[in-house]
Every structure is written in structure tokens, then in C-alpha cells.
Amino acid sequence: MSTPSLLILAGDGIGPEVMAEVTRVIDWYGAKRDLKFNVSHGLVGGASYDAHGTPLTDETMERAQAADAVLLGAVGGPKYDVLDFSVKPERGLLRLRKEMDLYANLRPAQCFDALADFSSLKTEVVSGLDIMIVRELTSGVYFGEPRGITPDNEGGRIGVNTQRYTTNEIRRVARSAFELARRRSNKVCSMEKANVMESGILWREEVQWVHDNEYPDVELSHMYADNGAMQLVRWPKQFDVIVTDNLFGDILSDCAAMLTGSLGMLPSASLGAPMASGLPKALYEPVHGSAPDITGQGKANPIACILSFAMALRYSFDQGAEADRLEKAVEAVLADGVRTADLMQKGDGTPVSTTEMGDAILAALDASL
Ligand code: IPM
Ligand code: MG
Q1: Is 113 a catalytic residue?
Q2: Is 130-259 CATH 3.40.718.10?
Q3: Pairing, β 148-151 against β 157-160
Q4: How far is ligand 2, taken at its centre, from the CA of residue 74, in Å?
């Protein structure tokens, strides 16, 4: 295989700071593991709006389509709140997801032993937690038509969004979930609101169809999404893989993320159909946002972004062992007590900076050789 290409879109807020540490990790793989990447950079979100008046240019969109994988930092910030909806930073991200057709968003929620105390839940509820949320990412109420705000005939207005799913959209994301489950604990729980929504009834039936016809060996259960939210905070270890739609997945994955103690720890992969290479179209990004409150202060935790690169190694570059190495390096650093500010409570000592966390992870990578 020729040198794989990696497009880095660092974006806004802490995006560029955390991505700087990822770049050092990428360079480490080139130097120490002879795993070279053809890295290029582009703008997305507010950064792109500032330079070009749009949160994603057509040129960057084309480069993303051509790349073997895209690594994204974060988009958005208060400065852009006043912008028209059509040019808001988030639209850049949504366009990437939609046009690359990245329908399966993998959001692992894993509790690192060293951080179990840090969760807002009791240690026994979260220690050893390792679940995977598969969120449908290119359809549902995020993209459904009709949508918009129109006047009504009483002098007021009507806001409309449409929840819409097709058989194919549901079946393909269900397959992603069942495939993942086979490589984990072989259990899928599908979440929707079939008690109030027709699209939820279709969701349940189609997931069941894929199970019965293609994955009868995987254990499948169904749950209403509100109950799912409750079960996630009551006893999250009952789950292995959760598959759900775009909006429920957005909410449930934030909830699952917080179980683990810090949003600053969690990576994600957004995968589409296989390209000519046989590997899926893919975009990797941390689950955390742009964190404008700490931007530019060297406080941001780069781990979620670094672990997103580990997911790229695993899902885009077929380097599972090297992904394991990077994940173990992060675990070792945490076990050593190295902490950025988000991983500390008051009186816990001095946090390390973003760069110092990067230093520690590189040292742990060196030690793994
Ligand atoms: C996420 C974010 C995005 C979403 C925003 C930034 C558009 O919350 O990736 O979870 O709602 O999908
Ligand atoms: Mg979200």
C-alpha cells in the first residue's frame, strides 16, 4: 500500500491545541514504527468562515473525499453564535458527515481504571465499563425535509424538522452495530421511541430484520430511548453495543461519555461505505467540543483526540496492534497519575499542560518499544 493520506482539520477553540499533540504522535509512528502518513491540513468551522466566509469550502470537501482518513479537532465558539444558521461552524461538520456519507458513528465509552473515582457515579457502577454507542449520523431529524421556520396565520411562527428514516438507512447502521458486537461481547441493544414515533416502529422492525436474517448469533434487545438514558446511569455495564438514531445518539452518547469521568477522554469514528481500497470512508474526532472557556491556555486534554487517531489506526489503516500500543500508552500515563486539569478535583495537586500530556504519552510510547 502506498503512503496513506491523512487530512487534518483542526478547526476551532482547543481543536488546534489538541491536534498539535496528535501531530507529534503521528510523527512518532513515522520515526519509530516506520508507519508514515501523507499529512495535509485544511480549515473547517469558524476558522474556515473567517478565512473564506464558509464553514467548509468545496475544495476542502473534495480533499476530504479523496483522503484515506480525516482527523477533525472541534468546531464552533461564541464568536460565531450570531452567524446565520447556514454558515455556522457546525454546518461544516454536518456537510462532511453527509457528503462523505459517514452513516455509522462509533462512540466508545470506556472507563479507565485510574479515573474510576472521577465519575459522578459510584466507582462500582463504572469501573471496567466498556460500551460502544453506534449512532446513525447522516439522516433522521438532523437532515429530514421539510424543515424550516415559517409564519403561521396567527402572527406567530412554526418551526419544523422532520424525523425520517428509510429501510436501507436503518439496515446499514444496524449491520455496523452487529459486526462490532461480534468482535466484542456479542450483544446489541437498539434504542428508539417506537411507543410514540412511526419512524421508531420502522427502526425496531428493520433492526430486528437484519438480526433475524443476517446476525441471528448476536443477542439483540430493544429499549425505548428514555429508558435507555435511565439505564445508562443506573447500570451501564448491562450494555455492550447500543445502536440508535442520529438525535438519540447525540444525547445518549454525551450521557455515556460523562459516565467515564471526562469528556476529554473520548474519541469517535464516523465510518461510511468502503472505498476502492476496501477501507471505509472515515472521519475521526474527539467527542468533546471546542471548549472556548479554556482555549489558548494550554489546559486542554489531548487524549480524546489522540485516541481518535488510535481509532484511525484500527479502522482505517488496519493497524490494530499499533492502536493497542497507543491506547496502552495513554493508560500507562494515567496510571502514573499524569493529569490535565479536567481530570483533577480541587486540591489534587498541579495539572500538566496539553503539551506535557503529549510529552508523557510520547515517553510511554518510547517505553513500549
Ligand atoms: C456531536 C455534536 C454535533 C452534533 C454538533 C456540533 C453539530 O454535538 O458531534 O455530538 O449535534 O452532532
Ligand atoms: Mg453532541
Answers
A1: no
A2: yes
A3: antiparallel
A4: 11
